[in-house]
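Changelog entry

Holo records now carry the ligand SMILES as an explicit input line rather than a separate metadata file. Below, a converted record for zinc ion, shown in the new format.
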Amino acid sequence: MIEVRESPQHGRGVFAVTPIPRGTVVLEFHGPHLAAHEVAPDSYHLQIDEFEYLGASHEADDYVNHSCDPNCGIGENLRLLALRDIVAGEEISWDYSTAIDEAGFQGFPCRCGARTCRGLVRSFRDLTDTDRRRLWPFLMPYLRRKYPGVR
Ligand SMILES: [Zn+2]
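Structure line, unchanged by the conversion:
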């Protein structure tokens, strides 16, 4: 269904090799569970709870790039779901701001190329109310519990 290869956006990326219908579980994020102090800033990590991170699995889930107009989103149990029908060859993406919520996080420049690009990948707390409401259904579950009023 998917493979890792060179991405025009950022080093490596994950691409559909067959059509993927909306609602399909594209992959599951996995890796060692780390506390905040165990996360090296430059190494791959994914925030999955207030003080908990996933480290690198060294599989496809490490290489899915961010997009401000993604074709996938976070579901339950660290699953990445297709938000719409995806055609073969399309790069798989999700919105990193649906998982990041660190105080003082400065963000990093976005090169996703979407017309709706926000320019900077930031913590969920730093997004506009409009973006927060739009992204709420695809939030990492710990953020849905943390921000119940955004919906
Ligand atoms: Zn963007």
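Spot-checked after migration. The pocket of zinc ion is lined by residues 68, 110, 112, 114, 117-118 (CB under 6 Å). The two ends are 32 Å apart (CA to CA).
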